[in-house]
């Protein structure tokens, strides 16, 4: 991923779809730490902007973060890489201003993959449910399609 960045080829969405789990994680690191993708000095989109998330490529949590990062901030964009970071991003300064609607296309497909992912405590809900809870708490109205 760093090589793609240096070659100027990390410039279109979906490059993470067909890569290994390790490469998806590397893509998130590039998005977070690269000066090319940092949001320094850039204004967040105004509240109320509609975002459409395609759930077809969401096969694990890292692919979810790749997808939401691109939806909010474009190719190579960052919008969290764990639940705490997603919550931080939803507080502003990372591209989107809540409240806003998020239309999650193919959400059942993503849910099927993410329902197997458990939170650190076995007593807590699956990660998919935690994502919905975080979004709701931060003023994001998720429309599951």
Short structural summary:
This protein is of the alpha/beta class and 145 residues long. The chain has six helices and three strands.
Write the layout of secondary structure elements.
Blueprint: H1 2-6, H2 21-33, E1 51-54, H3 61-73, H4 83-89, E2 100-105, H5 107-114, H6 127-137, E3 140-144
Parallel strand pairs: 1-2, 2-3
Largest sheet descriptor: 3 strands, parallel
- Number of alpha- plus pi-helical segments: 6
Supply the helix-strand structural class.
alpha/beta
**Mean pLDDT across every amino acid position:** 88
The CATH architecture can be named as: 2-Layer Sandwich
In which order are the strands of the major sheet placed?
1-2-3
Number of strands: 3
What is the first-to-last residue Cα distance? 31 Å
Q: Give me the strand/helix succession.
A: HHEHHEHHE
Going by CATH, the homologous superfamily would be Barstar-like
| Count of discrete structural domains | 1
Unreliable residue stretches: none
Q: Helix coverage percent of residues? A: 25-40%
- What is the gyration radius calculated from CA atoms? 14 Å
Strand content: 5-15%
What is the fold-level CATH name, i.e. the topology? Barnase, Chain D
The CATH class designation is Alpha Beta
Q: Tell me, what's the shape?
A: globular
Structure description:
The longest helix is centred in the first third of the chain and has 13 residues, at 21-33. This protein has helices at residues 2-6, 21-33, 61-73, 83-89, 107-114, 127-137, and strands spanning 51-54, 100-105, 140-144. The protein is globular. The protein has a single domain (2-144), classed as 2-Layer Sandwich (Barnase, Chain D), CATH 3.30.370.10. With 145 residues, the chain is of the alpha/beta class. Strands 1-2-3 form a 3-stranded parallel sheet. The chain contains 6 helices and 3 strands; from the N terminus they run H-H-E-H-H-E-H-H-E.
